[in-house]
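FAQ: What does the model actually see?

It sees only this:
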Amino acid sequence: MKKFVAVILVVISFSAFAQKDSTKASFSKRYTKFSKDRIAIDLNGTNWIHKIPGLSIKWYSRGINVYFNYDFQIKKSFFSIAPGIGVSCSNVYHRSEMTDSTGPGIQFKPLTNPDNYKVNKLSLTYIDIPIEFRFRTKPDRLDNSWKFVAGFKAGIRVDGHTKTSTKTPKEIVKLKPFPDLNLFHAGPFVRIGYSSFNLTAYYGILGVFKKNRGPQVNEFSVGISFNGL
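And it is asked to produce this:
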């Protein structure tokens, strides 16, 4: 009887050990099916939070972000950290004249003939360093999962210019540089979605213009994000 019990205990122990290894292997196999989301392409609608009298940002203001991230799994869990690098661009369309003077700095004035303008925008481009904290649900039968990302990015401006296009006379004018533009931007962002399709939002905590060199303006954006690889 004692020998029989001993044999049963050995079998149970072996089965438990094998099941544990099988569980670990199954988990690792499921995790390897995840897309590491190394590439993120965001198509955004952009806008400003401001108190500039008479300034109206057009609804079709837009931007694009392209980021490369590397995913580091946290202790065999569905959580990971992903630092990266990339480029973000925004085009803010409005119906005001933006001037950069040596006195009060950036100012916005009403256009004398707004109907004569086909394009009137400020374009900004940054090199960004984002870092993301990620969570994924278990893959479903299609090997896809829900994804939740909270992150923060900081960047340095590499371009900032205005562009106007008029009907009469027909001409396109680009003006730069604007030294009163802030050299940096930074802020938190979130991304939520399923498989390769996500929704994303960002808020800039630094002003678009330097302190005391223009109005207080904070950028924000919402859009769709496509992730893969």
